[in-house]
C-alpha cells in the first residue's frame, strides 16, 4: 500500500517504492527530488533558503539541515547513500522557486525563489549530480508529488494542467 | 529562549495590542462597507515552519492574499487572506458595475487594485493604532496581491523567518462582515527580533533576550 509522506518546509524525507513524497504549497521554496531508478528509492528536501553560511555565518549550529540548499543536498545524498543508492545513478528533479509577490523596488538580491533555484543548480553541478528535469520560477505556487515507484514528479498549480517532469 | 517560551502574560499583552489594532481595522471596514463588521479576539500561536502550510485548512485551496511589509521600529509582515468569491464581492462594493472585469479564473485589474486598496486602508488603521499604543514608529509598504494556493502564500510570506529559527509567531484575527458573510483572515507576523521590541514597548519583556523572537527553542 503506497503511503503519502508529507515533506514540510525545511524537512527532508526518504523512502522506497511504492511510497509518494509530497510537498504542498511550494512558494519560493524548492522541492529537490533525488531518485535511484534501480533501487526505486528516493528522497525529497523542501528547502527554504539558499545559503546557510551567508545567512548564519560559518560554523553556526544548524538545527534543520533541510532548510538551506547548501546543507540539505549533502544531507539528502548521505541519507540515500545509506539506503544503498549510488550517487552516479541518481536522477535529480527540482520544482518551485517562484516569486509570488511583486513589490516595486525589489532588487534581485531580495528574490528568494530565483536565488534558491540558482543555488540548487550550482550545488548539483559541483556535487556532480545530473539534473533530469525541472519546473521552476514564475510567479505561481506549486505542489509536488514524487512517485517512488516510477521516479515521476507531478507538479500541480492553480489554474493550469498538471506538469510531469 | 525561543518563541515557545512566551509566558501567558506576554501572549496576553500581544493579544491586547493586536486587538486594539484589529478593532480600528474593523471600524474602517465597517465604514467602507456600511455593514456591521465583527472580529474575533486575536489568536497568538507559535507554529513550526514545517507545519505552516496547514494553518488554514486545505493548503492547496486557492485564496487571494494581500501582503504588506511594515517598516520602522517594529518590522513585521501583514497578510490578508480571503476566499476568492468573498474577495470579489468586497472589491465589487468599491467598483461600479461597468468597471468589473473578473472573468472566470482571471482577476480584473480594477478588482486587484480595489483589493489592494482595502488591504492598504485596513493596514493603515491597524498600524496606526498599534503604533500609538506601543509608541513604536511603524510604516507600511504598498500592498502586493496574489491568487494562489494558500499553502504557497503562507510559505512565501514566512520563508525568511527560517533564517533565524524553526518557528513562526502568528497573530491571527478573523474579520467578518455579518450581513454579507465575508470572512477574511488577517495575520501579523513580527520579523525576527521585532518580538523583543514589542514586548519591551508593552512593558512585559521580562527575561526575554534582545536577539530573540527568533532563536530556535532549545
What's the layout of helices and strands?
The complex is a heterodimer of chains A (165) and B (218).
Chain A (H helix, E strand, L loop, with lengths): L3 E3 L5 E5 L3 E7 L3 E7 L4 E7 L4 H5 L12 H14 L8 E6 L15 H15 L3 E7 L5 E6 L5 E5 L2 E5 L1
Parallel strand pairs in A: 1-3, 6-7
Antiparallel strand pairs in A: 2-5, 3-8, 4-5, 4-6, 8-9, 9-10
Chain B lengths: L7 H26 L3 E3 L3 E6 L13 E11 L3 E7 L1 H11 L14 H26 L3 E3 L3 E6 H9 L8 E11 L4 E9 L3 H8 L17
Antiparallel strand pairs in B: 1-7, 2-7, 3-4, 3-5, 3-6, 4-8, 7-8
Low-confidence stretches of chain A: none
Q: What value does the average pLDDT of chain B take? A: 85
Q: Note the gap between the termini of chain B.
A: 7 Å
How many structural domains in the coordinates of chain A? Answer: 1
Distance between the termini of chain A: 24 Å
Uncertain spans of chain B, ≥5 residues at pLDDT below 50? 212-218
The count of strands of chain A amounts to 10
Q: Report the top-level CATH class of chain B.
A: Alpha Beta
Helix content of chain B: 25-40%
* Residue-averaged pLDDT of chain A: 92
Into how many domains do the coordinates of chain B divide? 1
Largest interface, per-chain counts? A-B, 33 and 36 residues
Shape of chain B: globular
CATH homologous superfamily designation of chain B: CheC-like
Largest sheet of chain A: 5 strands, mixed
Beta strand count of chain B: 8
Helicity level of chain A: 10-25%
Structural class of chain A: alpha+beta
Summarize the main sheet of chain B: 8 strands, antiparallel
Tell me what the CATH architecture of chain B is: 3-Layer(aba) Sandwich
Q: How many helices of chain A?
A: 3
Amino acid at each position: 500500500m503506497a503511503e503519502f509522506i508529507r515533506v514540510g518546509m525545511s524537512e527532508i524525507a526518504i523512502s522506497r517504492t511504492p511510497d509518494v513524497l509530497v510537498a504542498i504549497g511550494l512558494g519560493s521554496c524548492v522541492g529537490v527530488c533525488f531518485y535511484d531508478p534501480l533501487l526505486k528509492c528516493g528522497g525529497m528536501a523542501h528547502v527554504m533558503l539558499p545559503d546557510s553560511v551567508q545567512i548564519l555565518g560559518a560554523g553556526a549550529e544548524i538545527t534543520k539541515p533541510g532548510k538551506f540548499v547548501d546543507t540539505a543536498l549533502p544531507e539528502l545524498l548521505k541519507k540515500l547513500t545509506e539506503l544503498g543508492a549510488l550517487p552516479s545513478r541518481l536522477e535529480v528533479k527540482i520544482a518551485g522557486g517562484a516569486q509570488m509577490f511583486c513589490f516595486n523596488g525589489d532588487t534581485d538580491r531580495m528574490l528568494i525563489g530565483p536565488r534558491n533555484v540558482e543555488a540548487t543548480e550550482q550545488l548539483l553541478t559541483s556535487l556532480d549530480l545530473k539534473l533530469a528535469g525541472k519546473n521552476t520560477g514564475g510567479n505561481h505556487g506549486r505542489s509536488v508529488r514524487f512517485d517512488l515507484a516510477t521516479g515521476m514528479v507531478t507538479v500541480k498549480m492553480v489554474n493550469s494542467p498538471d506538469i510531469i517532469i | 529562549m525561543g518563541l515557545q517560551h512566551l509566558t501567558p502574560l506576554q501572549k496576553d499583552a500581544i493579544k491586547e495590542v493586536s486587538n486594539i489594532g484589529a478593532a480600528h481595522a474593523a471600524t474602517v471596514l465597517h465604514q467602507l462597507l456600511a455593514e456591521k463588521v465583527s472580529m474575533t479576539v486575536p489568536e497568538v500561536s507559535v507554529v513550526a515552519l514545517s507545519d505552516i502550510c496547514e494553518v488554514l485548512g486545505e493548503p492547496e485551496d486557492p485564496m487571494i492574499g494581500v501582503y504588506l511589509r511594515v517598516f520602522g521600529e517594529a518590522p513585521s509582515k501583514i497578510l490578508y487572506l480571503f476566499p476568492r468569491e468573498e474577495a470579489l464581492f468586497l472589491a465589487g462594493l468599491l467598483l461600479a458595475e461597468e468597471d468589473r472585469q473578473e472573468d472566470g479564473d482571471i482577476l480584473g485589474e480594477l478588482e486587484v487594485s480595489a483589493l489592494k486598496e482595502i488591504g492598504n486602508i485596513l493596514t493603515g488603521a491597524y498600524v496606526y493604532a498599534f503604533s500609538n499604543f506601543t509608541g513604536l514608529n511603524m510604516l507600511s509598504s504598498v500592498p502586493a496581491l496574489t491568487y494562489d494556493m494558500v499553502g504557497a502564500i503562507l510559505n512565501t510570506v514566512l520563508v525568511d523567518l527560517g533564517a533565524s529559527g524553526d518557528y513562526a509567531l502568528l497573530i491571527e484575527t478573523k474579520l467578518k462582515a455579518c450581513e454579507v458573510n465575508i470572512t477574511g483572515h488577517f495575520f501579523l507576523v513580527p520579523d525576527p527580533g521585532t518580538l523583543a521590541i514589542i514586548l519591551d514597548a508593552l512593558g512585559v519583556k521580562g527575561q526575554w533576550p534582545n536577539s530573540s523572537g527568533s532563536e530556535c527553542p532549545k
